[in-house]
Amino acid sequence: MKPDTTIAMRQLIQKVRSIIPFDIPEEAICSGICRGCAKKLLEFLDMELEDWEARLASGDHPKLGDIQKLAKQSQKIYTSLQRNGLVAS
């Protein structure tokens, strides 16, 4: 039986939105030592998630590679946020 990639993508998007703090004030993002621009990374990831939400709403079916790519991007951005002290280790 083939896995339902649409459900898997929706679950991934929901998990990323619950873990990544997209509502951090800009003052907190851009203070202190900066290792990679957290503001730009958060904006990029938010745009990727919004794009997939729109694609899913229009009936697009993601491939397993699409899910893996989004998961990997999200993990890398989360790691960068950890290095900048914006999320707990």
**Mean pLDDT, as a whole number?**
90
Strand content: under 5%
Largest sheet: none
N-to-C CA distance: 37 Å
Order of helices and strands: HHHH
Helix count from the secondary structure assignment: 4
User: Percent helix among the residues?
Assistant: 55-70%
Question: Runs with pLDDT <50, length 5+?
Answer: none
Query: How many DSSP-defined strands?
Result: 0
Radius of gyration: 14 Å
Indicate the structural class.
mainly alpha
Approximate shape = elongated
Please, could you describe this protein's structure?
It is a single chain. Helix 1 runs antiparallel to helix 3 and helix 3 (38-57) runs antiparallel to helix 4. The chain has helices at residues 5-19, 26-29, 38-57, 64-83. It is built from 4 helices and no strands. It has a domain at 36-89. The model has no long low-confidence stretch (mean pLDDT 90). It is elongated and about 50 Å long. It has 89 residues and is mainly α.
Chain-wise SSE layout:
Elements lengths: L4 H15 L6 H4 L8 H20 L6 H20 L6
Helix pairs in contact: 1-3, 1-4, 3-4
List keywords for this structure.
0% strand, 89 residues, mainly alpha
At a glance:
With 89 residues, this protein is an all-alpha fold. 66% of the residues lie in helices and 0% in strands.
